[in-house]
Write a structure and sequence with these properties.
There is one protein chain. This protein is of the alpha/beta class. A four-stranded mixed β-sheet has the order 1-2-4-3, sandwiched between helices.
Length: about 180
């Protein structure tokens, strides 16, 4: 993972998407956007309107392996949304880090993401492990890393990128 960064806190809808436009510009406006849609249902509509079919939605829940696609209707189309368990995401990232399939480059924001992950509190229940953020702290960067690790190994990644390439492929000019 080469770069992480927080979007400003307290932004919703179009304001949040606009903050993401600047990040997208650094990657030539042709990258997949894997977005957490758990807390702001209107964000899907705005993201699709701003970035089109490059958006992959994630609904973080208590359980789910992120395999099944739910197609959420948005203006002028549909957005794929995958339900993924928080524990599933975090344990997948941990396994990817242990096997060195995912590595963090050194930098202050990456250290913040790593610290957020290390500071998560684990509670062991009959139903499985539950990870929570200590009061007054954030886990946004760490969870973003977990979502990225999930997306990078997803069985639909080839389809997502094929659709992305078709959407951004330059069109040939017809002779006049």
């Amino acid at each position: 993972i080469l770069e992480v960064g927080d979007l400003p806190q307290g932004l919703f809808g179009q304001a949040r998407a606009n903050a993401l436009v600047d990040v997208d510009a650094r990657y030539d406006r042709n990258a997949l956007i894997v977005a957490d849609l758990s807390f702001d249902p209107t964000y899907a509509e705005v993201l699709h309107e701003t970035f089109g079919p490059r958006v992959i939605g994630v609904q973080i829940a208590r359980s789910g392996d992120g395999i099944t696609t739910q197609w959420r209707p948005v203006k002028n189309g549909y957005l794929p949304v995958y339900t993924v368990g928080r524990t599933y995401l975090l344990e997948l990232l941990l396994n990817e880090l242990r096997s060195q399939l995912v590595r963090f480059v050194d930098g202050p924001e990456m250290r913040r993401a790593f610290d957020q992950l290390v500071n998560l509190e684990a509670e062991f229940r009959d139903s499985g492990t539950v990870y929570s953020c200590p009061p007054g702290q954030h886990d946004d960067l760490g969870m973003s890393c977990a979502m990225l690790a999930w997306a990078a190994r997803h069985q639909h990644l080839e389809t997502w990128t094929r659709d992305l390439l078709a959407a951004v492929r330059p069109r040939r000019q017809r002779p006049k």
